[in-house]
Design goal:
About 40% of the residues lie in helices and about 25% in strands. With about 550 residues, it is an alpha+beta fold. It folds into 4 domains: about 120 residues, Phosphorylase Kinase, domain 1, CATH 3.30.200.20; about 130 residues, Transferase(Phosphotransferase) domain 1 (Transferase(Phosphotransferase), domain 1, Orthogonal Bundle); about 130 residues, Phosphorylase Kinase, domain 1, CATH 3.30.200; about 140 residues, Transferase(Phosphotransferase) domain 1 (Transferase(Phosphotransferase), domain 1), CATH 1.10.510.10. The strands form 7 sheets. It has a 7-stranded antiparallel β-sheet with strand order 1-2-8-9-7-6-5. A 7-stranded antiparallel β-sheet has the order 15-16-20-21-19-18-17, sandwiched between helices. A 3-stranded antiparallel β-sheet has the order 10-12-13. The chain is globular and about 85 Å long. The termini are far apart.
């Protein structure tokens, strides 16, 4: 660090590039001044670090404040370099190996080397860049289809070449995801990528295939859920530098990526029940539960004080009222204005329900957890906003679930029946799109090890209701959803038969339509047609059994 000068301010030793001494006052960085003058704002905040973006007339930079949040972090800091120093040294090494990354401007560490304290890193802002995942999820969908396709192809190629350069240079990033890649586009939409967040980088000899494979799996965990197979193949060809597809390696990567995602999802599935930056616990009187972070307890206080009030208000739309549950729709005031929501009450129907809740999650809580499980797996469902229960003598009784409303949506069967009011050609075209979309959704649900035992047409919402534009199918009523380590064929058949029974003897659906659904579900284009007749017979038998059972009990097929 010979090109740096050393300053000591407020118990922190700073190593700073010459000419940047004006960033410091007698007590250290002038962060409080910048925040007060609105020249700095928080980009990310958590127990372990806070990231600030500071824009001064002379300089635009990011400040990363690394904290020691627990005893483990403090002990680790005594035997390892600080996170700020590790990231600085990694940035220098990565840049020396011709991999694009950020420029460090200053490093701050405790004056006493043996004292475990917070560390700081200042880096120059990369102009006209944004996180890759932000661009792909927000800006790219707004572009024209042709421009989207061109840029997706260029991004896949650029990303493959960047990973190849990293791995050939001996760089492995153990937190590799699109949030740690910055994107810059020139006037002709040619992408340039930069690697950031380097504290988890390991640098050494060119990577072996095993190390390369592990890094590729980390990146593919995000893209396998959101990118087309053709774009992932284009990435692979750019990474290998050849058109030889190596199908064995590709198949192995996809299989290992799914297994890695399944492990990650199982770890994150219950984070919606803890206090963190996304969720928090709520409590008022004898009511307790959980909510998303954007709805603070004071916003939900009227509902927590009297959870049954919305069911009695005349202006609210009643969607269902029965002995087991009630559902209403209304506008919920929030920090960003009113939001249309669905509010469901789960009644106690048996004396044993509160006692059963001691050993398994009650229906309202299961629906809340499973809603966030589906969203974590990039499966469409209305976002659960909050859940709570009344407690008496320590036992959970009535449950209440608050979810977002899917705008302009119809139940699947109602949507299909509305299609028949369209001209015949338009009706068939829209119906086939709907069949393909629904079959793909169910196939993806099962691939990601989720089962919905009550997968009937009433529990699938289609939007937009007029059938114009791209269709989206959402899964609702998630009490019957289960997470499984292995989804057996019998359970898959049961799910498919339940959906098939919803259209039993429907005059508008032909056997060809049902075969089309099965073909998409079984992915004939990838796996061939082998075995489809056995699936057809098993689904038909299970459907007939379900129809007979519902007729015997007097239940609708839905």
């Amino acid at each position: 660090m010979a090109e740096f000068i050393v300053l000591e301010r407020g118990g922190v030793r700073w190593q700073v590039r010459p000419g940047l001494q004006y960033l410091f006052g007698p007590d250290g960085l002038r962060l409080d001044e910048w925040l007060a003058a609105e020249q700095a704002h928080i980009v990310k905040h958590g127990p372990h670090r806070t990231v600030y973006h500071v824009v001064l007339p002379e300089l635009d930079f990011y400040l990363k404040h690394n904290r020691l949040a627990d005893c483990r972090a403090k002990l680790r800091e005594l035997v390892r370099p600080s996170k700020a120093r590790s990231e600085y040294e990694h940035a220098q090494a990565v840049a020396a190996r011709q991999v694009p990354t950020f420029e460090p401007l200053a490093l701050g560490e405790p004056c006493r080397a043996w004292v475990a304290r917070d560390s700081f890193l200042i880096t120059r802002t990369l102009p006209e860049t944004q996180p890759l995942h932000t661009f792909l999820e927000t800006l790219l969908p707004q572009w024209s289809p042709g421009r989207q396709a061109r840029l997706r192809q260029r991004l896949a190629t650029a990303l493959g070449r960047l990973l190849a350069r990293m791995h050939d240079a001996g760089i492995a990033h153990h937190d590799l995801h699109p949030g740690n890649l910055l994107l810059r586009l020139d006037a002709d939409d040619h992408p340039e990528l930069f690697l950031i967040d380097l504290h988890a980088v390991r640098i050494g000899a060119p990577l072996s295939w095993r190390a390369r494979r592990g890094n590729l799996i980390l990146l593919n965990r995000w893209f396998a859920l959101r990118a087309e197979r053709t774009d992932r193949l284009r990435f692979w060809r750019a990474y290998t530098g050849t058109k030889d597809q190596e199908p064995a390696k590709i198949t192995d990567l996809e299989r290992r990526t799914l297994a890695s995602n399944l492990r990650m999802w199982r770890k994150l599935d219950r984070r919606c029940l803890r206090n963190n930056r996304h969720f928090h616990c709520v409590h008022l009187g004898d009511v307790a539960g959980h909510a998303v972070a954007e709805f603070a307890t004071n916003v939900l206080a009227p509902l927590l004080a009297d959870p049954d009030a919305p069911f009695e208000q005349p202006n609210n739309i009643v969607l269902k009222r029965s002995a087991s549950s009630s559902v209403v729709e209304f506008d919920l005031p929030g920090p960003n204005g009113p939001r249309r929501v669905i509010y469901k009450r789960f009644a106690v129907t048996r004396w044993s329900d509160p006692w059963a809740a001691l050993f398994r999650s009650p229906p309202a809580l299961r629906s809340y957890i499973m809603g966030h499980c589906l969203l974590l797996r990039c499966l469409p469902t209305p976002r659960p906003l909050a859940v709570w229960h009344r407690y008496r003598h320590g036992l959970a009784r009535e449950g209440y679930l608050l979810t977002e409303k899917v705008a302009n949506a119809l139940e699947l069967r109602s949507f299909v029946e509305r299609l028949y009011s369209l001209p015949a050609a338009q009706c068939r075209t829209c119906l086939r799109r709907l069949i393909d979309q629904t079959a793909h959704l169910v196939a993806t649900l099962h691939q990601r090890r989720l089962s919905h035992r009550d997968l009937k047409a009433a529990n699938l919402l289609v939007s937009p209701a007029d059938g114009q534009g791209d269709l989206s199918v959402h899964v609702i009523d998630l009490v019957g959803v289960r997470r499984l380590r292995k989804l057996r064929r019998a359970r898959r058949v049961q799910n498919l038969a339940r959906l098939n029974a919803s259209f039993f003897n429907h005059p508008g659906l032909t056997r060809s339509d049902r075969l089309r659904f099965l073909r998409v579900y079984l992915r004939w284009g990838l796996r061939g047609r082998s075995g489809w007749k056995r699936w057809w017979r098993q689904i038909a038998e299970a459907t007939a059994h379900k129809v007979q059972r519902n007729l015997h009990k007097g239940r609708p097929l839905g």
